[in-house]
Structures are given as C-alpha cells and as structure tokens.
Amino acid sequence: MIRIFNYGEVPNETLFIRSPLIQDVASVVTEIIDDVKQNGDEALYRLTEKFDGAKLRSLLVSEEEIDEAVQSVSKEYLDVLQLAHDNIAEYHRNQIRPGFVMTRPDGVVLGQKVTPIARVGLYVPNGTAAYPSSLLMNCVPAKLAGCGLLVIVTPPGKDGKVDPAILAAAKIAGVDRIYKIGGAQAVAALAYGTESVPAVDKIVGPGNAYVAEAKKQCFGKVAIDTIAGPSEVLIVADDTNDPAVLAADMLAQAEHDVMATSVLVTDSRALAEQVQQELERQLPLLPRYDIARASIDNNGKIVVAKNLEDAMACANEIAPEHLEIAVDDPFAWLGKVQNAGSIFLGKNAPEALGDYLAGPNHTLPTTGTAKFGSPLSVDDFVKKSQYTYYSAEALENVKDAIMLFAEEEGLHGHARSVNIRFHPDET
Hints:
This protein is of the alpha/beta class. About 45% of the residues lie in helices and about 15% in strands. It contains 15 helices and 14 strands. Strand 7 (about 200-205), helix 7 and strand 8 form a beta-alpha-beta unit. Helix 6 (about 185-190) packs parallel to helix 7 (about 210-220). The N and C termini lie far apart (about 80 Å).
C-alpha cells in the first residue's frame, strides 16, 4: 500500500526514484557498439536474432509492409492518429523561428541563421507496449524543422514484423525510412552507419537501459536529446477533488513501468487517506496490474502539506516530469511553477491528455532535469549559426578597442590581424 508522509518528514529528493539506468549495462553496450562498428549489417542481423528472436531477410521495412500495416489498422484508430498528428503540428508550428538580422548605420550586419539538422534518427520502443504516440511526438517537430532525412529504428516481433500502429503513425508523420532493429545495436547503427543504415547527426527517442546507455556512449559522435529516466507525475490537489480521479491519474503513470513514480501532494489529510484507499480499489482493475502494483508500492507516495503554497514549494524542489495542478483556479498558481516538464492545469487535464492528443510534446525532462531542461521541440531539430559583416569604416571605428583587448590577453597576433588592414607597413 502507498505510504502517506507529512511535508518535511522525508527529504524531497527521496520522494522520486531518480535512477535513469536501472542496471549496470555499460560494458555490454560497449561490446555491442564495437560489434556494429566493425561488422555493420551482419552484426545487426545477428544481434536482432539473438535479442529479439527474429531472423530477418531485410533490415528496411518495405513500402508493401507499410501499406499492409496501414490497411490492418482500423479507420477509427487511423483517424485518432491523424488527429493527434494535427494537434501536435498545430502546437509546434508556433516554435518555428526564422533567425534574425540586425544592421547599424556604419555598415555592420549581424545575424543568426537557423538551419535544420540534416539527418535525424528516432528510436521507437516496442517492448511491453508499442508507442506510436512517441513516434508522432518526435517526428512532427523534426518535419516542421525541415530535417532532410528522418529515419526510424524499432524492434521487430519474433515474426520479423513491426507493430502495425507504429508503421501507420510513421506513414502519417512522413517518415523517410524505417528499420527493424532495436536495442543498443540500433543506436550504434544510427551513430556510425552500416551498409544499410545511414549515419545520422542526432538521435532522439526513449528506450530501455541499453538504449539509454548506448545514446550516452555515442554522444559526441552524434547529438542526442536526453538520457531519459523513469516516467513520473506529481499531482498538487486540494480537498475539492474526487479521490477516485486522483487515484486514476496516479495509476495511469504507474502502469508505464515498475520504476515509474506517482506522487500526490495535498493540503488535506482526509483526501490523502481517501486516495490511498482508492488506489487499492482500482489497482486490480488494471490489465498491467503487476507493473502498476510494483510502481505504487515501491515508488508511490502521498505527501500532506500545510497548505498549497507548501505543496507548490515541494513540486518546485522535485522538478517533476509531469505536474498536475488540480485546483479550481489553476492559472492563479501557474506563475508559481519554477520547475516542471509539462504542466496540466485544472481538473480536466489528466496527464494522459498530454501523452496522446493535446499537442504539447510528451518527450520531457525526467529525474529532476526540469530544473534546467525543456520538453522536446522544433528547436531540438535545428542548429543556429551566427554571422558578422563589417565595412572597412565600421572595423576602423573599433580597431583600437580590439587591439587593446587582444594585447591585454597577450594575443598579439589577434591585434596584428586587425592592424594590418589599415597599416600594412607596420606589421
């Protein structure tokens, strides 16, 4: 049964399990990466058979396989995928930035040029569940950014096929290529390239401990989004809430993974106890009972604060991935949020809304990184270059200042490179 604490009774950092990797897999991942680097496609076929039980004829998903998958998905679900895609696109279009240019009267031109990352690889998990929602959340901002090549890797089933819902979502999102590979070997293939898989410039998307470690080890060769930890939710709620609804929101997070964490912070001891009982009543109703049970028992907590001010202070110290503010006037509290990945305002915005359909991204900073990190966005798929132009007059106006600065730092060559333009005989 979930435990109830008083605010301040335990350190806030112990309220969430903060372990991005649940086991030491570094040495195994290193071996896999080296294998893929040295043996290319042959290693991918061999490792896919070893880890996924699939003996593949081709790593690339064919157009025929994609069409067959789309036809096998119900029209109702295709419509939902399209709706989610459109909502995500509508939201993320607001993040597109064109760069800027500024000028000065003496002939100075300064600016910033925004350029899409040319090649992006997306890892789509397919373990205890398939996540086409994750595919859409990653692909839509990449396409809006204008990335030239968008490649997906995802583990196949033992039959060598990719989950039809993933392929349908990929079709809707306009993915360029899909490969039937998963695990650390898929990350290595994206980072270093093989005969079939193109090397990319950035790898995004969640995965298990092996995938996270592979992204960590390949960082530097390629860019990555983040090293994601277990999913988490913190709910701030007052006594006007229905305890059954709060319990359901906590269990929605708990069913993700045994390492997932659900925390309720409330100013009502009576509500805390009611939610505690509701969790016990609702848990047996979940098909993923064993996962949710382990998550709630090991990581779940209810915290009773003196007031909502203390509850919000607790939330800011924890910096949760998902923050629900379940009060009647949530916008009155929005300004007090300092650290959170995604904020759900009011009693009609469950975290599941953000997972699938609302539009804001569900790839979020975990393990307290919301103190400095941000949700995935169009910005993650572009790079920025700055440029400088000075006329001869403009450079002459500042040459003495540049030379003084350079000489104070002992870099006389820097000073000379400016002076020679105006006094070629003095250098």
